[in-house]
């Protein structure tokens, strides 16, 4: 039976970028990774405690960490940053102070910036949180998946695939259910496919949610090769100069 590779790691360096940008000596590399994981966990726990939403969606798409000798820059990409700011007006400053005390940043300054992403439900992490909230409220998994597909269609995506595994709807035997809408070309490297694996705890046990979202290839071509149209035009002009 063939096993599927992680779509994000498969496209790393082409259509996907790194979420941690820093260099380190080999002996200090593991410490840097552990520090990044602790920063991300601390931010997610803070947002989960202080951000009150009726849908249960925290809205964190990803957290990028950039490190220098004297600076740690943390960029939080959120779908609904207003909800965090309205519930805690000084939330970003409090979070920054908490992280500085937690990691004892004496020689390094720590900055936190919040960036809003366009079309939040086009991000698999936010969509997985939405489905998890529906399953916790005992909504049928089919209704939750169909509603998620409707939200994704509003974000102008080319295709989506959702998979839920576990004791679905409280059944005694665990099973896997999935649904696909549109195209999801997992073997095409130039295709921008965003992926998320999410775990949700229900009264019946743990459910695993996996989401693949396929975006437009033309947009990806301009993002990865921004000078591609200029090169094509230059080659075309030089070709006709010979006649």
What can you see in these coordinates?
The structure is a single chain. α2 packs antiparallel against α4 and α5 (124-136) packs antiparallel against α6. The chain has helices at 7-10, 29-50, 81-87, 91-103, 124-136, 141-153, 217-224, 228-240; strands at 20-21, 60-67, 71-78, 109-116, 159-166, 175-182, 193-202, 205-214. Residues 218-243 have low confidence and may be disordered. The chain has a four-stranded mixed β-sheet with strand order 1-2-3-4. A four-stranded antiparallel β-sheet has the order 6-5-8-7, with helices on one face. It has two domains: 7-116, K homology (KH) domain (GMP Synthetase, Chain A, domain 3, 2-Layer Sandwich), CATH 3.30.300.20; 139-223, 2-Layer Sandwich (Ribosomal protein S3 C-terminal domain), CATH 3.30.1140. The longest helix has 22 residues, at 29-50. The radius of gyration is 21 Å and the shape is globular. It starts with 6 loop residues before the first helix and ends with a helix. The protein is built from eight helices and eight strands; from the N terminus they run αβαββααβααββββαα. The protein is of the alpha/beta class.
Q: What topology does this entry show?
A:
Elements: H1 7-10, E1 20-21, H2 29-50, E2 60-67, E3 71-78, H3 81-87, H4 91-103, E4 109-116, H5 124-136, H6 141-153, E5 159-166, E6 175-182, E7 193-202, E8 205-214, H7 217-224, H8 228-240
Parallel strand pairs: 1-2, 3-4
Antiparallel strand pairs: 2-3, 5-6, 5-8, 7-8
InterPro entries: KH_dom-like_a/b, KH_dom_type_2, KH_sf_prok-type, Ribosomal_S3_C_sf, Ribosomal_uS3, Ribosomal_uS3_bac-typ, Ribosomal_uS3_C, Ribosomal_uS3_CS
Domain KH type-2: 47-118
Subunit structure: Part of the 30S ribosomal subunit.
């Amino acid at each position: 039976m063939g096993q599927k590779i992680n779509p994000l790691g498969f496209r790393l360096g082409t259509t996907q970028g790194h979420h941690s940008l820093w260099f380190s000596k080999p002996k200090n590399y593991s410490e840097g990774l552990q520090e990044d994981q602790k920063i991300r966990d601390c931010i997610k726990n803070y947002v989960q405690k202080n951000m009150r939403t009726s849908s249960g969606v925290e809205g964190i798409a990803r957290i990028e960490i950039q490190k220098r000798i004297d600076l740690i820059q943390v960029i939080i990409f959120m779908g609904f940053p207003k909800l965090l700011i309205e519930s805690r007006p000084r939330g970003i400053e409090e979070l920054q102070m908490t992280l500085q005390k937690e990691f004892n940043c004496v020689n390094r300054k720590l900055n936190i910036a919040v960036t809003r992403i366009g079309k939040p439900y086009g991000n698999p992490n936010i969509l997985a949180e939405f489905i998890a909230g529906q399953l916790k409220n005992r909504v049928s998994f089919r209704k939750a998946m169909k509603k998620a597909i409707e939200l994704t269609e509003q974000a102008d995506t080319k295709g989506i695939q959702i998979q839920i595994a576990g004791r679905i709807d409280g059944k005694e035997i665990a099973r896997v259910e999935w649904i696909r809408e549109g195209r999801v070309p997992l073997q095409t490297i130039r295709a921008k496919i965003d992926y998320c694996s999410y775990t949700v705890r229900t009264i019946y046990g743990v459910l695993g949610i996996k989401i693949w979202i396929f975006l437009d290839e033309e947009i990806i071509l301009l993002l990865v090769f921004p000078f591609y149209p200029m090169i094509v035009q230059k080659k075309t002009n030089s070709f006709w100069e010979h006649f």
